[in-house]
Structures are given as C-alpha cells and as structure tokens.
Amino acid sequence: MSSENLIRSFIAIRLPEEVLNTLKLIQNSLRDRLPQARWTRPEGIHLTLKFLGEVEESVVKEIAGTLDSAIKNFKPFRLELQGVGAFPKLAMPRVLWVGLQPKEELIRLQKSVENAVRPFGFNPEKRQFRGHLTLARLKGERWSEGLRKYFLESKEISDGMQMSVEEVILYRSDLKPGGTVYTAIRSCALS
C-alpha cells in the first residue's frame, strides 16, 4: 500500500468563531506561564468524535458515504462549555483542555459515528468518550500549585458559553511545516 493513497482523517464538529475566540483568550492568559507548551492553533480546535488516522482513500470515500445515515436521526442541539482539565490528570498534565457539559445527545452522536465506522475496521475506543477542546500539549512543563490554580480559574472565561451543533464533518488532516491543515471532505447536516 503506497502512502499516496493514505489520508489522515477524523470525524469532528466544527466550532463557531465566538467559541474559538474564547479559547484563544484562555490560551493567551496561560501562554507566558507555560512557554514550552505546544499550543493548538485556535482555528485548528474542533470537537473530535472519532480519530481514524491513516486510511486508504477508497475507504475514506466509503466512510463519507455512511455518515449521512449515521446521523440521520439527530436533530441540531446545543452544547455548553464547562470547566477545564488535563489528561491524564491535573497533577501530571500532558494535555490541557476546556470541557463540555456532558450531554446525552453528544454521547449518542459520538456512539453513532463510532458504530458507523466499525465495519471499516475501526474498533470503538476503550476509554469512555469525554467531549473536550484541546488547548495545549505539555512535555516536561513545571506545574506549580499556583499555576494549577490559575489554570482552574481560567474556566471562568468560557463557562456557560453555548454553541449549536448542526453538522458532523469528515476531515482530512495534512501535516505541513507551518502546522496541520484541516480540510473538510464531507459535511453532513443534522436533520
């Protein structure tokens, strides 16, 4: 299999501009305190439902064709940003994120997307889905109690902000020297 036929891809929800601007405010408030962090470009932040990885182009086309049926029973719904956190845990952060209020519609939508790609060889995640928006990745960062407290207080910038979910998008992800470029392959509107 030649790498020219592989497409790095994932299925996600695009964020509205006002949410991206709010996430950028949080990033800017932390940037000087975490100089070694790799900050996600605000325009690159999205709500991932399923990461597919390197997939043959023909399979990506088939997956694009199944997305409409996977989401056909979902009506548009609203999500609320809620809290901040870190993976694997706040005591040893590797990924900083803004959370989303757990919503049954989002969990069901993610499961439906996951079930739609299962016939193509994509097994369900072993971890429970937890909707989040990645702000930064840390490697060897010093995480003082004061910085941890400051980060937890940054949630006040985004808490309560709402967004409407109206579509699911199959994205192509191209790694470029200037950063990752995301291109929509297929956009499927919720009914």
UniProtKB/TrEMBL annotation:
Chain ranges for the short sequence motif HXTX 1 as given in the UniProt record: 46-49
Limits of the Phosphoesterase HXTX domain: 14-97, 102-182
InterPro entries: Cyclic_Pdiesterase, Phosphoesterase_HXTX, RNA_CPDase
Organism (species): candidate division LCP-89 bacterium B3_LCP
Transmembrane segments: none
Listed Pfam families: LigT_PEase
Family according to the record: Belongs to the 2H phosphoesterase superfamily. ThpR family.
Enzyme Commission number(s) of this protein: 3.1.4.58
NCBIfam families registered for this protein in UniProt: 2_5_ligase
Reported function: Hydrolyzes RNA 2',3'-cyclic phosphodiester to an RNA 2'-phosphomonoester.
Motif (HXTX 2): 132-135
Keywords (A to Z) from UniProt: Hydrolase
Protein name (Swiss-Prot/TrEMBL): RNA 2',3'-cyclic phosphodiesterase
Gene3D superfamilies per the UniProt record, alphabetical: Cyclic phosphodiesterase
Catalytic activity field: a 3'-end 2',3'-cyclophospho-ribonucleotide-RNA + H2O = a 3'-end 2'-phospho-ribonucleotide-RNA + H(+)
GO molecular function: 2',3'-cyclic-nucleotide 3'-phosphodiesterase activity; RNA 2',3'-cyclic 3'-phosphodiesterase activity
Location of the active site: 46, 132
